[in-house]
């Protein structure tokens, strides 16, 4: 049982965030009804302290605050870019020596987003997402810089 209460201000900010990021429309009808009823009750009563209701509302709050697909793609691309920047100096005798523009690309938001959407190569395995091996390339670092 949780002893923490949820206030009206918390519910309203979460509601607005959920509407902005589009997660509000993904909720089921009964979940929306529960959330609206809780907002109405909290507006008059101050806060909600019932443990079971708070648990259900916290689950709804978590679903409303989930990040969008675009942000998930960007985070995945950012992780790849950071790994490439870290490993770039030791690969092939310094990949940034013979490809100096790559360092600039890895700091460009559009390129980082593209890295997140690149579905053809899975950098953490030696296989593409289609299950074919990449010409005998087995290491993690070679898959990052493998170009067809």
UniProtKB/TrEMBL annotation:
Domain of life per record: Archaea
Name of this chain's protein: Uncharacterized protein
UniProt organism field: Candidatus Methanophagaceae archaeon ANME-1 ERB6
């Amino acid at each position: 049982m949780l002893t923490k209460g949820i206030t009206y201000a918390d519910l309203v900010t979460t509601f607005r965030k959920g509407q902005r990021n589009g997660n509000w429309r993904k909720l089921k009808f009964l979940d929306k009804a529960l959330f609206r009823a809780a907002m109405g009750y909290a507006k008059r009563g101050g806060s909600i302290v019932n443990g079971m209701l708070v648990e259900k509302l916290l689950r709804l709050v978590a679903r409303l605050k989930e990040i969008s697909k675009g942000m998930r793609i960007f985070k995945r691309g950012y992780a790849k870019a950071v790994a490439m920047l870290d490993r770039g100096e030791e690969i092939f005798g310094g990949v940034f020596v013979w490809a100096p523009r790559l360092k600039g690309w890895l700091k460009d938001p559009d390129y980082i987003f593209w890295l997140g959407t690149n579905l053809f190569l899975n950098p953490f395995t030696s296989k593409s997402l289609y299950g074919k091996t990449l010409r005998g390339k087995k290491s993690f670092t070679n898959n990052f810089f493998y170009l067809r």
